[in-house]
Fold this sequence. Notes:
Jelly Rolls
Amino acid sequence: MNSKLKTxxxxxxxVVLSGLxxxxxxxxxxxxxxxxxxxxxxxxxxxxxxxxxxxxASAAAKAPDAKGFxxxxxxxxxxxxxxxxxxxxxxxxxKTTFSTDNFSGDYTTVPKNGETVKVGNQELKWYALDSKAxxxxxxxxxxxxxxxxxxxxxxxxxxxxxxxxxxxxxMAAGCNSGSxxxxxxxxxxxxxxxxxMIADNGTSARLTLKKGKNIVRGAVIxxxxxANFCVRFLDEKGxxxxxxxxxxx
Length: 249
């Protein structure tokens, strides 16, 4: 009895499979190669425009924001660097790199807006911009210009004009990831290691802002991740210094 049942099942399976094969042949050949779907648009800003996060700086002097942060900077297009991780940013690495990949050995020079300079074999342009936020987001800057966003070194310059001499101030900065800052040609602050951008993450020794123009230069370096920074001056009591104006020349 079991033998007959097995034989009957085999016959049924053969008939079903034969029917499927005939049906497939009757329908003709199968579909051709799959047509690729159009790419899904990236969410967010895809226009590569500076105006979303920045304003072109005007000739009129600008005051710091309500908390003393400096929003106006001359910013150089990024120097492309082969950096795969951010924990290499030791004091020695930063000082050596900033000395080597430098647009000028004169730390009091003020570039001109729109000027092109050469760093190594890279031709790079200066932009005078006001950030719409208290910090200056270099990821947004490089994205807007369609330039490399990771593995970059960015040079910065701004001019601080003081109506009178201000002694015993401290430069306070935050950055992501490593940076170095100079005031009137002298090293003021070094932020090494892999940092997050936190306001006043590092403060300098006591400095003097002289009456008239003071030149601030900065360099921010970053591998993977978003690069941005913020800078302000604090007085002896830790209060933001706001009795100054900012320009790019």
